[in-house]
Amino acid sequence: MSEEAAAIHAATLCLDTHVDIRWPEPPDPLAEGTMRVDFPKMARGGLNAVVFIAYVPQGKRDAAGHAAAAERAEAMLRHIRGRADGAARRFCATADALEACFAAGAQAVLSAVENGYAMGHDLGAIRRWKALGACYLTLTHDGHNDLADSARPRAPLGDAAEEHGGLSPLGREAVAALNEAGMLVDVSHVSKRGMMQAAELSKTPIVATHTACRALCDHPRGIDDEQLDMLRQVGGLAQITAVPAFLQRVPEGAKNPAGVEAMADHVDHAVTRIGIEHVGLSSDFDGGGGVEGWQNAAESPGLSAALLRRGYGKRELGLLWSGNFLRLLRRAEAAAG
């Protein structure tokens, strides 16, 4: 990495918008360990801020399943908030707090919930998550839930190809409740019909926090050009993520060699299609993410270097890493009831 590129990376607020944690026995983030993201790796890689995820796997949709999912999500949100000491690491629930944290030279901890299954049928859960600091909800994961159809139905759960025709009536109410609470609507795992409906319904721009471009790699977790166009239309955001299978197809059983250049290809496609203001970056570390050149938080400069080689400058790098996401956060905060 050149000195100029290193200096630009160091001056940029680098925010990774989707990082999983191990549960129910998460490791100590203060210690260097086997996880792709911990505070020492973040410091070495100039990764200033991370949205840690309260992830709930899809399970049986009954009262017991929903109750267990809700309990897990809230316990994870409390744990994530507790990772910040208020000094060297600060918990940030707003865009202003995140920028102040970066200006102070501290590491920032944010949180979000992945899979609306954790809500069950209780729309009040969204307000509770917001009070705990969550900045977005990913409406589904793999497998349909009571809010929406998933981009990847799960036959072992009894899923048909489609159940709701996109969003369910409850899912539509959840989008409104997220708007009211000031949380972003994340459509990363949602079916195309559900994503397009959410874009039309939401009073604030939606985000796909960890996705890729189906035009370059036809994976069901990616988004196609029509979906990209919709994101531009509503002022939304596609965060290109470091999951090899989303970036590059390989023969079954073969090792996927996708690296930072493959990520940069997807960034280029999205930027060309919908403009720099609607594209961002994320890793999905410790949830399947990790490409050659960006295998963990310590290697974050490698992604910046790849993008700078493509001709993106300081301003563009800032928008991709955090500026666009911060703009959406502020829109959500301003629209909250």
Automatic annotation (TrEMBL):
Pfam families: Peptidase_M19 (PF01244). InterPro entries: Metal_Hydrolase, Pept_M19. GO terms for biological process: proteolysis. One of its GO terms (molecular function) is metallodipeptidase activity. PROSITE patterns: RENAL_DIPEPTIDASE_2. It comes from the Bacteria. This is Membrane dipeptidase. It comes from Roseicella frigidaeris.
